[in-house]
Amino acid sequence: SLASTAITCFTRGLDLRKGTEDVLCPANCPLWQFYVFGDGVYASLSSVCGAAIHSGVITNTGGAVRVQTLPGQESYPAVNANGIQSQVLSRWASSFSVTAGTKSTALEAVGRSVSTARPSTGKRPKKTLDKKAGNKDCKADIAFLIDGSYNIGQRRFNLQKNFVGKVAVMLGIGTEGPHVGVVQASEHPKIEFYLKNFTATKEVLFAIKELGFRGGNSNTGKALKYTAQKFFSLENGARKGIPKIIVVFLDGWPSDDLEEAGIVAREFGVNVFIVSVAKPTTEELGMVQDIGFVDKAVCRSNGFFSYQMPTWFGTTKYVKPLVQKLCSHEQMLCSKTCYNSVNIGFLIDGSSSIGESNFRLVLEFVSNVAKAFEVSDIGSKVAAVQFTYDQRTEFGFTDHVSKEKVLSAIRSIRYMSGGTATGDAISFTTRNVFGPVKDGPNKNFLVVLTDGQSYDDVRGPAAAAQKAGITVFSVGVAWAPLDDLKDMASEPRESHTFFTREFTGLEQMVPDIIRGICKDFLDSKQ
Question: Nearest-CA neighbor of 215 among 188, 194, 193?
Answer without folding.
Answer: 188
